[in-house]
Structures are given as structure tokens and as C-alpha cells.
TrEMBL record:
Originating organism: Rubroshorea leprosula
Biological process (GO), any one: pectin catabolic process
Main location, first listed in the record: secreted
Protein name (Swiss-Prot/TrEMBL): Pectinesterase
Residue intervals of the Pectinesterase catalytic domain: 125-410
Record's signal peptide: 1-26
Length: 420
């Protein structure tokens, strides 16, 4: 079992057409060898439903090999149709409101703070390493945003590797990092727990609300831990509320993604790590996301940090793909805290998943308090016959609360990436 983690509790109006695009915008190819294109994305250009579902089936390539990926990167026809049905179901309420939207924006749908921030367009500032943008570093761009910011600011980041350690403090709400999907910029640093403490080791830490990232790679380049103390290394810490990540990568080893606190949405993303590489006390929905374990020995995907009955938090993985290296070497989660809540639904699980699936972290008393659920998953790692007795194979009724955008109250705040 991995060593105990060192952590603290730190943790003009949008068009209706774009709202539809947001929920069905699928993953584009993660090809980082494409020619450099430093032009910002064109405003309002989103693929059609047909093309996005086609690209969704394409492989989520990454530098490390994935040895047990199922056909079509783990996304087979039945899952395609099911995901499409899920999208349609979650769009039903929106479609019923179309008539009202046509006559004027219904401001009761979104929270007032968000409406005010998005109204009247967005400010775009550009970052390019060659000096041809407004700034040469992401840090300088973030520093230019005023404290108490109340309007959406898009930081468009040109292709390249940015060696920076960045914190967006809690006074700078409504910040968007935006990259080119075909030439995805990387923000890289090598901070570790030994240097900064685990949660403060993050390459990028976001403490503000309403953060959005699109087509960005967040990387912690610290070496793979070899058993020494203090080798945890976070690539991204998200501690603000109402944050969304679209087609982003989170690359590291131990503690890659600190899903610290707040409501978060991850779509078409890629997360790579070894131990506890998605951890924290956030309330988050991961949709169509690839999870890759590269642990040499025992790996653990989640360490969800819910502790009290009234903690409104948990990680939900929906239509995801779990792959990696090795056979039966990785747990879906471990009971780092007393009452973790994690559900995997309609997810492909490769051979890397251990038969027991879940660990009580050598705390048998937590067998009665954990909420570890699975629902209609597939692949060799999903076989439930040897699952830990405290894990739940959920019924249709039991899974309902976790199978909707309402789990993160998405209808009040979740918008498509802004036009830039």
C-alpha cells in the first residue's frame, strides 16, 4: 500500500446554440506533433454533432503506451449510443425552454453573478513565447487581471512549453485558459511535497470560482516516486467552485490532480498518474475522460476525501476509459478518509484493475462508511465476482442521483467555452 499522503484541508449573454454544443463537444485528437498554429480559435466555430461523435471515437494518444486499450480507444458502439442518449436526456429541460430563450434570455436559469460576468462579451489577452502576444508568460498574463475581477477574461496561450508555477488567487474569478487543440500548450513545473507541501506543489493552482480551461496540458515533471517521503507532486489543484475543464491533460505520478473542493466538470480529459492521482474533497463529474495508470507496483486512482455525513462531495466517472500498464495492479479507490464517495458508471475498465476493485486502506471500520459504487461498467477490470464486500453494484434506482448534470447543479452555471 502506498505511503499515507501529506495533505492539508486547503483545498451580451451566451448563445443558446453554444449551450447545445457544450454538452456534445467531444474530444479532439491529442496530437502534439501537429504544425504550430498560433492563431486564436475562431469565434463560435464548433463541430457538428456527427463530426464530434466521430472524433470522440478517436484515440486519446499520450506519450506513454497504453497496453490494454479496448477497440476504438475503449469506446464501442453501445457506449456511443448510450452517451448520446445521456446527453439528450440532460438537454431535455433546456430544449423545453427554447421558446423562452428565443424571446429573451431567462436570467433565472443561471446564477446572477455568472450572467453579469458573461454579459457583453469577453476580454482576450494572448500569451506567446516568441513575444508576439500581449505577454510572454502565463504568470504575467494572470498578474495583469485585476483583483476583484468581475468579467470573463480569456488567456489565450500559444503552443509551447511554459515552465511556470502559477496560482490564481480567490479574488480573480472568471478566468479562462484557452489553447489550440491541435497544438496544445503545456504548463510545466516540478514542485514536490518535500519542497512546498502536497497541495502547494501544484504546477497550476486555482483558488477562484468560475475557472475554465480548454485544450491545456497541466504537467508536474517531478520524477516517479521511489518510496521516499515527500515525493507527491500535483499538476493541477482546483479549489474554486463552478470550474470546467474541456479537453485538458493532467500529467504526473503521485497526486496528479487535486480535486480539492467545489463543483467541477471534466469533459474529454486525460489524467495520468500512479497513486491517488485524482484526490481531494471536490464534488465533480468526469465525462468521457481517459484515466491512465502508469504505476509500476500497486496503483490507486482515487483518494476521495469526504469525512462527514453532511459533506456534499464525491467523484462521479461517467462513460470514462481506464487503461494503463500491468495486470490487476490498480485500485479504483482507497479509503484515505472516513466517508469517500466515488461512482464509476458506464466506464470501460482495462486489465489493470484489481479484482477486489477497492481498498479500505487497512481501516476495516471504514467498510461501513465508504460509498464505492459501480454501474454497468465493461471490460476485463469490471468483473464484480471478486469485488470487496463493501463495494456496491448499483441498481438503476440507486445510480439515478449520479447520472445527471444536476449532481453538480450544472444547469445553473455550466456554460460552453467562451467565444474568443
Amino acid at each position: 500500500m502506498a505511503q499515507e499522503m501529506i495533505r492539508s484541508p486547503v483545498f451580451s449573454v451566451i448563445s443558446t446554440a453554444l449551450l447545445v454544443s457544450h454538452l456534445i463537444l467531444a474530444a479532439v485528437s491529442h496530437n502534439e506533433d501537429s504544425p504550430v498554429n498560433n492563431s486564436p480559435p475562431n469565434a463560435g466555430l464548433f463541430p457538428s454533432i456527427t463530426s464530434t461523435l466521430h472524433s470522440w471515437l478517436e484515440s486519446h494518444n499520450e506519450d506513454s503506451p497504453v497496453t490494454d486499450s479496448p477497440p476504438n480507444a475503449g469506446l464501442f458502439p453501445s457506449v456511443t449510443s448510450t452517451l448520446h442518449s445521456w446527453i439528450e436526456l440532460n438537454m431535455k429541460e433546456y430544449n423545453e425552454r427554447k421558446g423562452n430563450f428565443a424571446r429573451g434570455f431567462n436570467r433565472t436559469v443561471l446564477d446572477n453573478t455568472l450572467v453579469a460576468a458573461e454579459d457583453g462579451g469577453v476580454k482576450v489577452i494572448t500569451v506567446r513565447k516568441d513575444g508576439s502576444g500581449d505577454f510572454k508568460t502565463v504568470t504575467d498574463a494572470v498578474n495583469s487581471i485585476p483583483c476583484g475581477n468581475r468579467k470573463r477574461v480569456v488567456v489565450w496561450i500559444g503552443f509551447g512549453e511554459y515552465w511556470e508555477k502559477i496560482t490564481i488567487n480567490r479574488t480573480k474569478n472568471f478566468v479562462t485558459f484557452y489553447g489550440d487543440p491541435n497544438n496544445m500548450p503545456k504548463i510545466v513545473y516540478n514542485g514536490t511535497a518535500a519542497q512546498f507541501g502536497t497541495v502547494y506543489s501544484a504546477t497550476v493552482a486555482v483558488e477562484s470560482d468560475y475557472f475554465v480551461a480548454v485544450n491545456i496540458a497541466f504537467v508536474n515533471s517531478a520524477p516517479m516516486p521511489d518510496g521516499k517521503v515527500g515525493q507527491q507532486a500535483v499538476a493541477m489543484r482546483i479549489s474554486g467552485d463552478k470550474a470546467a475543464f474541456h479537453n485538458c491533460k493532467f500529467i504526473g505520478y503521485q497526486d496528479t490532480l487535486c480535486d480539492d473542493r467545489g463543483r467541477h466538470f471534466f469533459k474529454d480529459c486525460f489524467v495520468r498518474g500512479t497513486v491517488d492521482f485524482i484526490f481531494g474533497n471536490g464534488k465533480s463529474l468526469y465525462l468521457n475522460t481517459t484515466i491512465q495508470s502508469v504505476a509500476k507496483d500497486c496503483g490507486v486512482i482515487t483518494a476521495q476525501a469526504r469525512e462527514r455525513v453532511d459533506d456534499d462531495s464525491g467523484f462521479i466517472f461517467l462513460f470514462c476509459n481506464i487503461s494503463g500498464v500491468g495486470n490487476s495492479s490498480t485500485y479504483l479507490g482507497r479509503a484515505w478518509k472516513e466517508r469517500p464517495r466515488v461512482v464509476f458508471a458506464k466506464t470501460y475498465m482495462g486489465t489493470i484493475i484489481k479484482g477486489e476493485g477497492w481498498s479500505d486502506n487497512s481501516h476495516p471500520d471504514r467498510d461501513q462508511t465508504v460509498y464505492y459504487g459501480e454501474y454497468k461498467c465493461s471490460g476485463p477490470g469490471s468483473v464484480s465476482s471478486a469485488r470487496a464486500k463493501f463495494a456496491k453494484i448499483l441498481s438503476d434506482e440507486e445510480v439515478k442521483p449520479f447520472m445527471s448534470m444536476s449532481y453538480i447543479h450544472g444547469s445553473t452555471w455550466l456554460l460552453p467555452p467562451p467565444n474568443v
